[in-house]
Specification:
By secondary structure, the chain is an alpha+beta fold. The protein has one domain: Cytochrome P450 (Cytochrome p450). Helix content is about 45%, strand content about 10%. The protein has 19 helices and 12 strands. It has a 5-stranded mixed β-sheet. Strand 10 and strand 11 form a beta hairpin. The chain is globular, with a radius of gyration of 22 Å.
């Protein structure tokens, strides 16, 4: 094979490849990997550059460690979202991307992150208190309600009230369209976005976005008019942050980053929690081990102790391995000739780290379709073998916060309720827009309260 040729891949018409990618992506890329190996090319139509999918850890390491001047993501790599905006961390590249990342990192890590433990616990308890013994219900909506409130209160800093309720109503409407496949197609093909009035899909989308923007800008304006240094929500911390030149974020930057944190942190966390609860109750031994680990902490463990629990961490890690919410990392655009293994990629090529395929390599994860948390107790995987949050300069900035929230929510749910799956049928992953969720949202039955009949998750004042 010539070093200048792209890796092999399907020879079917690009529109056929696009159709399979949209409708049956997991099976499609698994079939491609089986036939063409861990580096293969897809051609998804004339609107796209050739896309090279990579699940080879050594190649992924090279992608994550290559200088962004030679290989980077952002808007030039096709990362465009009419909801997030052009000042979103995902869309930026180069120095603007580095600046925003430095400004956004502190509020989402360390002691500041741990301060949200009490809020996450209270929100979780409030949502799950509505469950009734003997009730059959769907887990996903409850997890969405929890993650949504955490975002609005911890990130936006909104208290219950008219603005909170209106923003919640609008965001739910724009994030949960009745026909997600149509939304996905509109996001992928900009030429189809036609504002034909409020009744049309795109027209409705634009009007929802405008109303959301008005509320966000009103909140930013109120904060500026009445500054309060005691506030610890992420928006307040973002507004107080200054770059190396002493400049704050603009209102547009604040708006776009808020929307990025919302979209990246809401449905993703809710979906991962639903998957975790499915596997925990699908495999009773997993639930028993988790309860034993949680009970050993006593009546009032602080969130930091829960965050460090090894088996809980292994369960969360295995959940994110088996069905990562995003099956691919952010596309990287080759800017100057780049050699990876036997291939030399020319400028304009898109390289895509395949999270899903990497997580299902049998040489790394034997019996990869089986849920085995012990994998993460028996060995440590490199950032190029296990990458649910992407990697390199594009690793998800909210990774620590997402894991913290996931662990606290699971600990709270398990310590309050005994549940079981409504049936034993295996749950499949289905495309929901750009993400992948458990089909049916995981149906469960509430059997009773935890045997101790008391919450084991209490946030001590020392941890806040």
């Amino acid at each position: 094979m010539s070093a200048l040729k792209l890796p092999n891949g399907p020879q079917t018409h690009p529109w056929v490849q696009m159709y399979q990618w949209l409708t049956n992506p997991l099976e499609y890329i698994e079939a491609c990997a089986k036939r063409y190996g861990d580096i293969f090319t897809l051609n998804l139509g004339q609107n796209f550059a050739p896309q090279v999918f990579i699940s080879n850890p050594q190649a992924i390491q090279q992608i994550f460690t290559t200088d962004p001047k030679q290989l980077d993501s952002g808007e030039p790599a096709g990362i465009k979202s009419p909801l997030l905006g052009r000042q979103s961390l995902l869309a930026l590249e180069g120095k603007p991307h580095q600046r925003q990342r430095k400004l956004l990192t502190p509020p989402l890590h360390g002691e500041r992150m741990l301060a949200y433990g009490e809020l996450i616990r209270k929100i979780t308890e409030q949502v799950i208190s509505q469950w009734q013994i003997g009730e059959t219900f769907t887990v996903l909506p409850s997890m969405q309600a929890i993650s949504f409130q955490v975002i609005l209160k911890a990130v936006f800093g909104l208290e219950d009230g008219p603005r909170y309720e209106k923003l919640k109503e609008l965001l739910i409407a724009i994030l949960n369209p009745k026909f997600p496949i149509i939304r996905t197609i509109l996001l992928i093909f900009p030429s189809l976005r036609q504002d034909l009035g409020a009744w049309s899909h795109w027209g409705k989308y634009l009007r929802l976005r405008q109303q959301i923007d008005q509320l966000i800008y009103a909140e930013i304006s109120d904060r500026k008019a009445q500054p309060d240094s005691s506030r610890t929500d992420i928006l307040s911390l973002m507004m107080a942050a200054r770059d190396e030149a002493g400049e704050p974020m603009t209102d547009l930057e604040l708006r776009d980053e808020l929307m990025t944190l919302l979209v990246a942190g809401h449905e993703t966390t809710a979906t991962s929690l639903s998957w975790a609860l499915y596997w925990i109750h699908h495999l009773p031994q997993v639930r028993e081990k988790l309860l034993q680990e949680l009970d050993k902490l006593g009546e009032q463990p602080d969130p930091n102790a829960i965050f460090r629990l090894p088996y809980l961490n292994a369960v969360c890690s295995e959940t994110l391995r088996l069905y990562p919410v995003a099956i691919s990392g952010l596309s990287r655009l080759v800017k100057s000739p780049l050699q990876i293994g036997e291939y030399k990629f020319e400028p304009g090529t898109l390289l895509i780290p395949s999270i899903y395929l990497t997580h299902h390599r049998e040489d790394l994860y034997p019996e990869s379709k089986q849920f085995k948390p012990e994998r993460f107790l028996e060995r440590q995987f490199s950032p190029y073998e296990y990458l649910p949050f992407g990697g390199g300069n594009r690793r998800c900035i909210g990774m620590a916060f997402a894991l913290f929230e996931m662990k606290l929510v699971l600990a709270t749910v398990l310590s309050h309720w005994q549940m079981e799956l409504a049936d034993n049928k295996p749950v499949q992953a289905v495309r929901k827009g750009l993400l992948f969720s458990p089909a049916g949202g995981v149906r469960m039955v509430v059997k009773g309260r935890h045997l101790q009949n008391q919450p084991i998750l209490q946030t001590s004042s020392s941890s806040v």
